[in-house]
Amino acid sequence: MEESKLTSKEDLLQAVDDNQDQLLSMLDRLVSFETMSPPARNTAAIQQFIDDELTKIGFQTKRVPFYEGDELLSAEKKGTDSSQYHSLLLNGHVDVATVDRDSWNTDPFKLTREGDLLFGRGVSDMKGGIASFMYIFSLLSKLKVELPGDLKFQSVVGEEAGEAGTKTLLKNGESADFAVVGDTSNLNFQGQGGVITGWITLKSPHIYHDGNRAAMITTGGGLKAANMIEKMMVVIQALEKLERYWGITKRYPGFAPGTDTINPAYIKGGLHPAYIPSEAKLWITVHFYPNENVDDITKEIEEQVIAAAKADPWLRDNLPTFTWGGDSLLADKGEVFPSLELDPEHPGMKALEKSFVDVADKMPTIGMSPSVSDSGWFGYYHIPAVDFGPGTMEQAHSDNESLSIKQLMEYTKIIAAFIYDWCHSKGEE
């Protein structure tokens, strides 16, 4: 029994090597879909293509409406003994970063090979990972490999614009014993810190003509009023003090000191030069460590800003208000990427580590991403997960984005071995 199992896995890995052209053909097809975000609203066609490909090889698929022109896709190949064996969920996003065609040496939507490098928008972030998943699925079908555990796949939209594609599917109840997000990690096992954006608003109960300014600011003027743009400095100074305090007091392995940051990213206020600004809004971006959560971070910021406002003689009667996050940076002007802590001792991590060592003949690097991906949503919904994908952060979003064929093939063999072993391992193991 064990000999048959090992031979079957060896056959699968040999097939990965023997059919490399099929992997590159799949990646070429995925790259050809111009799924840039922004502008977004352009992924229905690629999701239809993926749906058709998966349906042909026995996956049950479901499409979920998202924004107009965008869809989410879930797929599942039921295992032969689902209740007893581990399930696996693979996740990837089909939207890609915006392209400036004049800055490219090749057509960004046609896969171009030069030596070991593949060029095309999304090859590193992250159509390379999706092509790998789909290639493995096709080989499992071709070789008639029957997995005891459930194999699930999510093809999502919106990651590039902070949109809640993965969140939507997980909120709907999709789950597994372990999940791999195939986003750009240079074949490292990565968790991540979190990111949330927020708006802080100051609003005067009255609107005043610019001619009233002297009465507002001079001794004996008598007008209790304020310029909201000027009062926003109270808020910004409070945020700066909290950010410095975080830098002094907080640490997390894998992050440089001071990675917890509060960036005042955008400010707007006022109506017209003839008016005293009666409203000002500050858009901030907050980065936090993997062991912190959105609720605690936003509460700490609000308490700091409110305390500073209460110390101001005008603001204490007109306290700032807060709006946090959103499901779309494009539609809501807000986003959330939760943090993801890794559990190196989880059986899924141990099994993935074994597959990595067997293929790469070295131990994987376990650490933290300098960026964020949808992997944090798995942590938020208490699903053990890791971000593990081909491609480098330097290539993600870059002009002339490229991916090493050697790395893509190595990644594909690691994932193929892991799928086989994990879905053949019993749930209590």
Notable features of this structure?
Bact_exopeptidase_dim_dom; zinc; elongated; 11 helices; Aminopeptidase; 429 residues; 6-stranded mixed beta sheet; alpha+beta; disordered N terminus; 2 domains; 5-stranded antiparallel beta sheet; Alpha-Beta Plaits; Probable succinyl-diaminopimelate desuccinylase; cobalt
Walk me through the structure.
The structure is a single chain. With 429 residues, the protein is of the alpha+beta class. The protein folds into 2 domains: 2-193 and 340-423, Aminopeptidase; 194-336, Alpha-Beta Plaits, CATH 3.30.70.360. Helix content is 36%, strand content 21%. The chain has 11 helices and 18 strands. The chain has helices at 2-18, 20-32, 44-56, 123-142, 165-171, 213-217, 228-249, 294-310, 347-360, 375-380, 405-423; strands at residues 60-65, 71-77, 88-93, 112-114, 117-119, 151-156, 178-181, 189-192, 194-203, 208-209, 261-269, 275-276, 279-288, 321-324, 336-337, 366-369, 385-387, 402-404. The strands form 5 sheets. The chain has a 6-stranded mixed beta sheet, with helices on both faces. Residues 1-7 have low confidence and may be disordered. One of its GO terms (biological process) is lysine biosynthetic process via diaminopimelate. Residues 224-311 form the Peptidase M20 dimerisation domain. Pathway: Amino-acid biosynthesis; L-lysine biosynthesis via DAP pathway; LL-2,6-diaminopimelate from (S)-tetrahydrodipicolinate (succinylase route): step 3/3. This is Probable succinyl-diaminopimelate desuccinylase.
